[in-house]
Amino acid sequence: MHKAILEVQEISVRIGDRMVLYPISLELRPGQKLAVAGETGSGKSTLLKAIAGLQNLKSGAVYLQGERVEEAWEKLIPGHRKIAYLSQHFELRNNYRVQEILNYAEKVTEQEAAEIYRLCQIDHLLNRKTDQLSGGERQRIAMARLLVGAPILFLLDEPFSNLDALHKQTMKQVMLDLGKAMQINWVLVSHDPGDWLSWADELLILREGRQLQKGNPASLFYAPEDEYTAGLLGTYSVLNASEWEQLSGERLEFPKIIRPAQLQLSTVNTAPLKGYVKETEFVGYGYLLTVELESGNRIKLFHQDACQPDSPVGVQLR
Ligand SMILES: Nc1ncnc2c1ncn2[C@@H]1O[C@H](COP(=O)(O)OP(=O)(O)OP(=O)(O)O)[C@@H](O)[C@H]1O
């Protein structure tokens, strides 16, 4: 019995004469949810396709429950029957009823299929034609279509890119429910940190085809190795070593990356750092202030209330 559902061993991909993915290894244990982040062109889709057996590898191998996943060149129709891959460019055949499209892919019992439709929140759409659906509905149907194929690993490429905040929430709930009910393992690729920070157990950061950092989302959020990772995951500021020492008492050899929620305003006279408010931006649960420190360095922090531009403020650690 293999403990890992998925083992990716040192896989690399070359397309034409370009290296698109340098050797990457990872493991997914049952129930684990992995998110892959990186700037556009960093190799996220290529990694997913390589895991799904839809890509030729230059080196390495992918194992699903201990069995090697064949590469694209090894099969007449590339792909693995236990791995579902939902591309950001998925297509639903036009002019069919939703039910017909789903029946065609069904490899589960009628009862299980009904449960999948319920969890994907598409029961009410089964009699619709595929060209009478919203983007969010199409996405959930494409997902259900793959799910009735009974996968154990589900790979999603930018599943939220066309959805509004409400539909995103629905999709995330659907994925959580499905993960629990059907013991499906997820790997998700996304641009938007809001999509997966709360969702993933593990986060992999890619840059120019290389694995930069891997860890749990909260630790990467608060301790990114560099500004690339910091920037991918949200708003940040950089304090120089002396500013950080004034703030925390800790002496570092390098600048410190810090998140807005780690700082707060304080009384000007006694504050370790002083500056002036330059911008106030309403962000729903408060205001994101831009404060220019005495050094000229601009940092961002959250505050409950709006502040007048150019008002003098003190800054301390929260
Ligand atoms: N079929 C192909 N032929 C040539 N180059 C390709 C091909 N597919 C991908 N690439 C290149 O490989 C690199 C990685 O592409 P990939 O689609 O994996 O990136 P990505 O991180 O998913 O990007 P995005 O977020 O824009 O979807 C890019 O530089 C891309 O131009």
Walk me through this protein's architecture.
GO terms for molecular function: ATP binding. Residues 6-233 form the ABC transporter domain. Keywords: ATP-binding, Nucleotide-binding, Transport. It holds the Pfam family TOBE_2. With 318 residues, the protein is of the alpha+beta class. The chain has two domains: 6-231, P-loop containing nucleotide triphosphate hydrolases (Rossmann fold, 3-Layer(aba) Sandwich), CATH 3.40.50; 235-317, Nucleic acid-binding proteins (OB fold (Dihydrolipoamide Acetyltransferase, E2P), Beta Barrel), CATH 2.40.50.140. The chain is 26% helix and 31% strand. The chain has helices spanning 44-52, 98-105, 110-119, 135-147, 165-182, 193-196, 217-222, 227-233, 241-248; strands spanning 6-15, 18-28, 33-38, 59-64, 67-68, 83-86, 153-157, 185-189, 202-207, 210-215, 237-239, 256-258, 263-266, 273-282, 287-293, 298-303, 312-317. The mean pLDDT is 90. Adenosine-5'-triphosphate binds next to helix 1.
